[in-house]
Amino acid sequence: MRFDLTDLRLFVHVAEAASITHGASRTRLALASASARITGMEKALGTALLRRGRRGVQTTPAGQALLHHARIVLRQVQQMRGEISAYSSGLKGHVRLWSNTAALSELLPDALAPFMARHRHVDIDVEEHPSYAIAQAVADGRADIGIVTDTADLSGLETLPFAVDRLVLVAPRGHAVARLKALAFRDVAHEEFVGLSPDSPLQDYIGRHAARAGGPLKQRIHLRDFDAICRMVAGGVGLGVVPQTAARRSRRSLPIATVGLTDPWALRRLTICVRQLDALPVHARDLVGHLRAAGTAA
Hints:
This protein is of the alpha/beta class. 46% of the residues lie in helices and 24% in strands. It has 3 domains: 5-83, Orthogonal Bundle (Arc Repressor Mutant, subunit A), CATH 1.10.10.10; 90-163 and 268-297, Periplasmic binding protein-like II (D-Maltodextrin-Binding Protein, domain 2, 3-Layer(aba) Sandwich); 164-266, D-Maltodextrin-Binding Protein, domain 2 (3-Layer(aba) Sandwich). The N and C termini lie far apart (50 Å).
C-alpha cells in the first residue's frame, strides 16, 4: 500500500460527506482525479472501500477500518505540524472547532479574536452543531475541540469548564410581563414568539422544552441572530428567548425588558471537550487554555 496524505485526506472527506463530489471539493481535487485516487486505493487493497448509490456513497466494513486509521494518521501529522510550528512560523496550524449556538454567537467571537491575532500561523474552522453531535464528532475525530452544554453525553472525553449560558425572556417594555423579575416558561407558553431559524440547534432546544411546558411555540418569524430577535421584540412582534449576554447588549439601545426564567433548562453550563488533551497539537492545546480563561472571564 502506497497511500499518500492526500489519499487519506480525500478518503476522510468523502466518507464524512458521503459524496465523492463533495469530498473532492473539500480536498481541492478535480472529481476525475478524486475518483481515480479512490479506485487506486481499492485496487491496492484488493477490496471495495465505498458502496456507490444514487444518493452518494457509504463506507464498507473495509472502508470503516481505513477511515479509522486515516483519522489517526492525519491527527498525528497535524500534531507533528503543531509541534514544529512552535519553532517555525512558516508552517500553518489548523484547528477544527465545533460549537453550540449560544457559545458561537455570544462568546467565541470575542474569545477567538485575540488568540488568532497572536497566533498568525493558526487557522480555525468553526462549525455550529447541536451539543450531542459535537460530542460525537470529537469522539470520532471529526472535530478537535467542542463546546457543548453539560447535558450532552461526554463519556470517554476530557472536559473543562467554559462558561455559564443563562437563557432569559425578552419582552417589549409595555408588555404585562416586563415588570416581573422572573417567571416560569409555562406562564408565557401561550404567547406569540420571535425566534431563530428552525434549523438552529438552540431553537430546537427551546422548542422541545417549550412543548413540554405548554405545547408548540407560536413563532411568528424566524431570524438568524439574537440582535434581530431583540429588535423584533422591541417592535412588539412577540416575546423572545435569548442568552442573557445578548439581552443585556440589546437592552442598552432598545426598549425591551429582560425577565429571568426559573426553569432548570434555562441555565446551561458550557463545557470544552476534547478526545485527549495531551494528544492535541501545541496550537490546539494553547487554544483550549485560552478558551478556558476567556470563558471564565466572561
